[in-house]
Write a structure and sequence with these properties.
Layout lengths: L3 E5 L2 E4 L7 E4 L14 E3 L2 E3 L3 E3 L8 H9 L5 E3 L11 H8 L7 H8 L6 H13 L5 E4 L4 H11 L3 E5 L17 H6 L5 E6 L2 H8 L5 E8 L5 H5 L5 H19 L5 E6 L4 H9 L4 E4 L40 H6 L11 H12 L4 H4 L3 E4 L2
Parallel strand pairs: 6-13, 7-8, 8-9, 9-10, 10-11, 11-12, 12-13
Antiparallel strand pairs: 1-2, 3-14, 4-5
Helix pairs in contact: 1-4, 4-5, 7-9, 10-12
Length: 372
């Protein structure tokens, strides 16, 4: 039974828990780390590690998306980002990387993202991703899906990610033609990942649209301002567990159709990854963590996609820091600091081995404890 707290006469609130509030509890068995598998599969596409690159221009360029794919993850390029607005955004990214704390960073982000999206560049970027030889995935916002989908689909992507701060299966509008996710996905012959969502009911509704994957969370981290702007904060441990319950019920409802959960938010270290998967996620979406690799196009700076919104930005600009190393080192080590920011998936393998689990599906059964 979920804890419900009375916050005043006539108003209650459900209690939720963040990843920092929980910890993993080892069981009676341990396992050799070399016998542990971190592979997962989304539809027909197999990945060596449960890692999805957050589609921010700070982390995902065509080159860095390809590199993440080569290392076993899934890179996702934002087709509403700088790479589809400018022929060569390198100089703009270098300028953004050089902005200091006193600069009007948000205003500058709004200015550079005011350039129109070019359909010819969408096709060109997809060709670049295809030339890299891996799985091609792009992100589009719900409000631009109908307009950009023909260009994206003609370009030939493998996976389509429809992602916003909050995405629902039923968007009501009296002024615009709303996106009917169920009808849209039914007409496609490629897997679609949708999100973010924050609760059981929304996750279940998104699964009923036919989505192959659901993003859980709103990408919240220390630089997200969604709480101060909109009042929305997502306790990720609870959100993932609720979505996992929705997946279980949907599995029974459909007689076996499994929908993958991708956790997006509150994930910085290998321990965070392990706890997110232990709550029921199949993979994690990494943003700020990947901005610290040398391949990151913004040179260590970080911002969310919503940080450049023309009228209501939701995300602070993090000035560029010193890179921690190449992407391969961030993902697989070796680490020379004990803070969990390096060797992210080596840390996950070690956690799985310490708890005695062979693969990610088994690891979702790991015991958890509240200790804060």
């Amino acid at each position: 039974m979920r804890d419900v707290v009375e916050i005043g006469l006539g108003k209650t609130a459900q209690r939720g828990y963040h990843l920092d509030d929980i910890a993993i509890v080892p069981s009676r068995r341990t396992r050799d780390v070399d016998d542990v598998s971190t592979s997962w599969q989304l539809d027909a596409y197999q990945f060596a590690i449960p890692c999805v690159g957050h589609p921010s221009d700070a982390t995902m360029s065509p080159a860095s998306a390809v590199r993440l794919g080569q290392l076993g993850g899934l890179g996702v390029l934002n087709v509403e980002g700088l790479w589809t607005r400018y022929e060569n955004p390198t100089k703009i990214l270098e300028e953004l990387a050089g902005l200091g704390e006193d600069a009007r960073a948000t205003k500058r982000l709004q200015e550079v993202y005011a350039e129109p999206i070019r359909p010819d560049l969408i096709a060109e970027r997809v060709r670049e991703l295809r030339a890299g030889g891996g799985t091609v995935a792009v992100r589009v916002s719900p409000q631009h899906t109908l307009a950009l989908a023909p260009v994206i689909l003609d370009a030939g992507v493998d996976i389509l990610v429809i992602q916003g701060t909050i995405v629902s299966a039923e968007h009501v509008s009296t002024t615009d033609e709303p996106l009917n996710l169920k009808e849209f996905i039914a007409d496609l012959d490629l897997p679609v990942v949708v999100g973010g969502c924050t609760d059981y009911k929304t996750a279940l509704h998104l699964m009923r649209t036919g989505a192959a994957g659901v993003i859980v969370g709103i990408g919240g981290d220390d630089w997200s301002t969604t709480e101060s702007v909109l009042g929305i904060r997502v306790p990720m441990a609870t959100a993932i567990a609720d979505a996992a319950a929705a997946r279980r019920d949907y599995l029974d409802e459909t007689g076996g159709r499994y929908v993958h959960l991708i956790a997006d938010g509150d994930i910085q270290t290998s321990g965070d990854i392990a706890k997110a998967l232990g709550c029921g996620a199949d993979a994690v979406m990494l943003g700020e963590a990947l901005s610290l690799c040398t391949e990151a196009p913004a040179g260590g700076a970080w911002w969310h996609s919503a940080a450049s919104h023309p009228s209501l930005p939701r995300g602070a600009f993090e000035v560029a820091g010193e890179p921690l190393g190449e992407m391969e080192r961030l993902l697989f080590g070796p680490a020379d600091e004990p803070d969990g920011q390096l060797n992210l998936f080596g840390g996950l393998r070690r956690a799985m081995a310490k708890c005695g689990y062979r693969d990610l599906k088994e690891f979702q059964k790991v015991g958890l404890v509240l200790d804060r």
